[in-house]
Structures are given as structure tokens and as C-alpha cells.
Write a structure and sequence with these properties.
By secondary structure, the chain is an alpha+beta fold. It has four helices and six strands.
């Protein structure tokens, strides 16, 4: 598995943070995404990794935009999330959650594509403040 635009695009409306290592060193500057045909090649050349939360954080208190909450409790109030309780939090069968819930996971930067375990994203919990 390699990081592709299809893995990053769903997060972009929510201000995704990235770690970028170029041949010239690490950078934290903002860049404009050119989604041309060679974009996936640039992803691998520059070693771009999104900073995401593992699904195991669903039951932990997180902070998003200055607000602290437990994501599962927020989603649990939605009747369409009822099947999620039947699955361990290291794996969620995304066919059982609503579009609203999936969109919330993207907004809160949860790793819904398994990128962390494949070494293609950085676990936010491993970063130093």
C-alpha cells in the first residue's frame, strides 16, 4: 500500500496537518496541492505523511478546535451508529456507520484508511507537544 491522493482528499476540507520530508529536509510550510496526473509520484518523492488519530482514540478524550470530548460518546447519540458498539475499536466495519458519523471521523482526523498501521501516516499521540 502506498499513500495516494484518494487517502488525503477526504480530510482536506478539515485542515489536515502533514509532515513533509523533502530531499532538501523537513518543512512545515503550507503548499498548494496540484492534483495533476503525477501527484501520487510527488507524494512518495517528498515523503508526505498525514498526522492522524488511531481508531483506538474513539473512547479517549480528545481536543478539536479547543473543545474536549469523547468521540464515541458524541457518535453514540446518533441512532445510525448502533452497530459500532459490536466491534472492537481497533477495527470498525465502515459499512455499519452513517455518512454523518464517517464525516465526523474525517473531521476529527481519525485514520479510517489504516494508514498509521501501514506506515503512511503519523499517530498524533506519538508527537511531542
Amino acid at each position: 500500500m502506498k499513500l495516494e491522493l484518494k487517502h488525503l482528499a477526504p480530510y482536506l476540507p478539515y485542515g489536515l496537518n502533514l509532515k513533509i520530508n523533502t530531499p532538501f529536509g523537513a518543512t512545515d510550510r503550507k503548499f498548494e496541492i496540484d492534483c495533476g496526473h503525477d501527484f501520487n509520484l510527488h507524494l512518495s518523492e517528498c515523503n508526505i505523511k498525514p498526522i492522524l488519530r488511531p481508531l483506538s482514540d474513539l473512547t479517549k478524550e480528545i481536543e478539536v478546535n479547543g473543545e474536549k470530548f469523547v468521540p464515541y460518546e458524541m457518535l453514540n447519540y446518533k441512532p445510525t451508529i448502533k452497530h459500532v458498539a459490536d466491534y472492537p475499536f481497533s477495527f470498525i466495519d465502515l459499512q455499519y456507520i452513517s455518512y454523518y458519523s464517517f464525516d465526523c471521523l474525517l473531521e476529527w482526523h481519525f485514520d479510517v484508511f489504516g494508514l498509521i498501521e501501514n506506515g503512511l501516516a503519523i499517530d498524533i499521540n506519538t508527537l511531542k507537544e
